[in-house]
Specification:
This protein is an all-alpha fold. It has helices spanning 5-9, 29-35, 75-91, 96-106, 111-125, 129-133, 145-154, 158-169, 177-185, 192-203, 207-214, 220-223, 238-247, 254-262, 267-274, 280-286, 292-299, 301-312, 320-330, 334-346, 355-362, 365-375, and strands at 3-4, 47-48. Mean pLDDT is 77; it is low at 1-71.
């Protein structure tokens, strides 16, 4: 279920990383000789996470199952890249060539490779890579701030990025309901305990309690029970869903009955069930009982994600933080981002413009190059 990000790029490279690798720390110099031939091409075969959700629930019922973490980059290579990053960030050279090397090292990484690179950096230099990319003196109004923010976000692993994205969606007055629903539905049950602990470690508060205070009442029974469900229900229970759908009209609270069914099943399984021939007609009618944001994220996930991208770039300028997090989440899902890009061209408000074209017109400089290196045409 893995895909090669290198194959997608056709072997292209922004700046040859080897140009700056020759003066890494002395204890890393031996790695240069071993890796000299490979330094002329992109850092190994990139493994993109197949965390894919297509608009057709039946076709993509298994797409959300988490593959085993795989990295094609050797420990020596990651150590070498960490050393290059440390030297460049210590020198604080703000040249375009340096920016391109940072992009070339960080932007192509899969989630697993980003986690491995960050771990190597932390072990050797006793500070996080994300912190090094965002020094204390760098403020949001400074030139290059969003470029560095994008790079720092791309160094996060999948779970940490999910926690950060949820917190950002709940900041200020109200919350970004569409983003929250998408994130929770796209997180497998097996990852929810780690998500809760990661969120607590980062923000010193309970995720479920925070969600309870932020979400509207209709969404709580659909999303919150997922955090307390140890084992998802049997995915092959189309008959149970058919019976439930048939009884909705007589049920005094159809939304609650549907929530109980949905909240205890993996999202990929729900999509399979709602597309099952035995229940499809009734399921289409039952969808009216679901909140709009949940129905959209569940049944048309890529259209939902495309609208999130569009919303992030509406008006004068755009919501940089939201766009960065969307690029970091979807851009490393090779099949998923292809489907999102197709959906983006078809939704209202884009006038047929591609996602790549829109980002290129909205972002500038190294920040633009970084985002486009992830999204690709």
């Amino acid at each position: 279920m893995s895909n090669s990000r290198s194959a997608r790029r056709g072997g292209e490279s922004l700046v040859e990383e080897s140009n700056l690798d020759d003066d890494v720390d002395e204890d890393d110099e031996g790695d240069d000789a071993d890796d000299e031939g490979g330094a002329k091409r992109r850092s190994g075969e990139q493994v993109a996470r197949k965390y894919s959700l297509a608009a057709s629930a039946k076709q993509d019922g298994d797409a959300h199952r988490k593959p085993r973490p795989i990295s094609t980059l050797s420990g020596d290579r990651l150590t070498q890249q960490a050393a290059t990053l440390h030297r460049l960030l210590t020198e604080q050279d703000a040249s375009a060539a340096t920016d391109d090397v940072l992009i070339n090292i960080i932007a192509p990484k899969s989630f697993e490779e980003a986690e491995s690179l960050s771990a190597h950096y932390l072990e050797k230099y006793k500070t996080s890579l994300a912190t090094s990319l965002m020094p204390a003196g760098l403020t949001e109004v400074a030139t290059g701030w969003w470029f560095r923010k994008a790079l720092a976000t791309l160094t996060l692993g999948r779970i940490e990025l999910t926690a950060v994205s949820l917190e950002e969606a709940m900041k200020g007055i109200g919350c970004d309901e569409n983003t929250i629903v998408e994130i929770i539905l796209e997180t497998p049950f097996e990852d929810l305990p780690q998500l809760q602990s990661t969120y607590a470690a980062l923000y010193h508060k309970d995720l479920v309690k925070t969600l309870t205070s932020e979400l509207r009442a209709p969404l709580r029974p659909l999303l919150l029970p997922r955090f307390s469900t140890a084992t998802p229900s049997d995915p092959s229970d189309a008959a149970t869903l058919a019976a439930l759908l048939a009884s909705l009209d007589e049920n005094t609270n159809p939304s609650a009955a549907l929530a109980v069914f949905c909240a205890t099943r993996e999202t990929s399984h729900l999509r399979e069930l709602f597309a099952h021939p035995a229940v499809a007609p009734a399921a289409a009618a039952a969808a009216a009982h679901l909140p709009d944001s949940y129905r959209s994220a569940l049944l048309t996930p890529h259209c939902h994600a495309a609208r999130l991208f569009l919303d992030a770039m509406k008006g004068a300028g755009h919501h940089h933080g939201k766009l960065v997090r969307l690029v970091a989440r979807w851009g490393r899902d090779v099949e998923g981002v292809r489907a999102v890009k197709r959906a983006y061209r078809e939704i209202d408000g884009t006038d047929g413009e591609t996602l790549y074209e829109r980002i290129r017109s909205e972002a500038k400089g190294a920040y633009q190059r970084c985002l486009l290196e992830v999204v690709q045409p």
